[in-house]
Specification:
SH3 type barrels, six-stranded mixed β-sheet, elongated
């Protein structure tokens, strides 16, 4: 059953493929240590085309290298197949509170990125969760640039003005 999507959804992962015969799915979780995807939580599964529904998490093994999740009322491989490609989202109000000096990485998407000389470098379009550290994907006119999210590069984040200033080391952006 499709419902109207809340405006404040935060994407926490995506469904990759069915797993087994009982309706489980393999998932890619953007923050495996998140407690927002626990058993009993209500999440939105959205694929932008046909799927726009709320589901309750029945169970999950999210810590493993191959995370698996099971939703209530999804009980067969065929049921699970229709979920493939959907993003797993929750309403922002359900996210844990953060300290004043903390941010949610998803909030960086859409910020304009400038160097220390105030030259516009591009816009943050995505965040990659890589083993060494998280990385900003910054879209320029004709290419994408990857910038590690580490103190060495990130100088200032100004959410009010939707602006981020980075230290542009030689070779970081050609």
């Amino acid at each position: 059953m499709n419902k109207e999507l809340p405006q404040n959804l935060v994407i926490l992962g995506e469904i990759i493929k069915p797993h087994g015969l009982k309706g489980e799915v393999k998932v890619k979780i953007y923050n495996p240590s998140s407690e927002s995807l626990a058993e009993g939580e209500i999440v939105w599964l959205v694929d932008g085309i046909r799927l726009n529904e709320q589901f309750e998490i029945e169970s999950g093994r999210l810590i493993s290298p191959k995370p698996i999740m099971k939703f209530k009322h999804i009980s067969s491989k065929e049921d699970a197949k229709r979920l493939v490609g959907a993003q797993i989202s929750i309403e922002r109000t359900k996210l844990p509170k953060i300290e004043d000096n903390e941010i949610y990485l998803v909030d960086l998407i859409g910020l304009q990125v400038y160097n220390e000389k105030d030259d516009l470098l591009g816009e943050v379009t995505d965040i990659l969760n890589l083993p060494a550290n998280d990385v900003l994907v910054v879209k320029q006119l004709d290419k994408e640039v990857l910038i590690p999210i580490i103190d060495e590069f990130i100088q200032l984040i100004d959410f009010e003005n939707k602006k981020m200033t980075i230290h542009q080391m030689e070779g970081l952006i050609d």
